[in-house]
Automatic annotation (TrEMBL):
Localization in the cell: Mitochondrion inner membrane
Source taxon at top rank: Eukaryota
Gene Ontology biological process terms from the UniProt entry: methylation
Record text on subunit structure and interactions: Component of a multi-subunit COQ enzyme complex, composed of at least COQ3, COQ4, COQ5, COQ6, COQ7 and COQ9. Interacts with PYURF; the interaction is direct, stabilizes COQ5 protein and associates PYURF with COQ enzyme complex.
Protein name in UniProt: 2-methoxy-6-polyprenyl-1,4-benzoquinol methylase, mitochondrial
Shown chain mapped onto the complete sequence: 61 to 316 of 316
Major site of localization recorded for this protein: mitochondrion
Amino acid sequence: THFGFQKVKESEKDKKVHKVFEDVASSYDLMNDAMSVGVHRLWKDIFMDRLWPTHGVRLLDMAGGTGDIAFRYMRQLAAQKNNLKRHSHVTISDINQHMLDVGKERARLQGLTEEELPFLTINWQQADAEQLPFEDNSFTAYTIAFGIRNCTHIDRVLREAYRVLKPGGRFMCLEFSHLTNSTLQWIYDKYSFQVIPPMGQILAGQWQPYQYLVESIRQFPRQEDFKKMIEDAGFELVYYENLTFGVVAIHSGFKL
Ligand code: SAM
């Protein structure tokens, strides 16, 4: 029938769209895995462990990309059987709509949707971290993983994070940082400058973005300086924790 035909057509299109999304997402994953030898997954797990969300949280995952952080949040909530009466919320936001489209599709494939997780409202929203379209005091937690380094004005990102958090809300950032030991830093510099751009060329067919990646990591403020910037934005009880000798650091602060 006409309708039958249309159905077949649609499912073919669906499959094509899937494939495009999956190609992008998997090359993104492949590069993350290759560059960090898979450790980025562990860093993200630890990051979510530190936040340890419980039901009732309203999370804004900024620069959320394809959802790696938000998915961990959803799974952590799903694993907590008690207290389901408290409704939770997550907004996954990124400046790049395409990343969000990939993320939305992956969420669907992994069963991370409002239908599957009825205790949760999920909102995918394109936005610039430096100028958020959200009201003051609207979230209880704000996460940004491997995203703030790419923003032009870090101080604006922090000010916006502070503005949209409710009093008592927590800011958490996971970002590449600086090694605590100078010998290790020397080895790491060699690795990153000599290995990452060629690896980008081979695996993703691009040298320049990976050269930029390495340089942006070098230029990002050191742990103590970044801590100071977070305090300057108004956050209190600010601390940081180095992971893998400072290859990455988790910074945390509260709006009190
Ligand atoms: N948080 C995800 C993760 O850990 O897998 C994605 C990290 S990805 C390396 C960096 C993301 O930051 C990209 O998706 C990019 O589009 C986003 N981004 C860059 N500048 C941004 C800005 N000014 N506002 C919001 N997102 C931004």
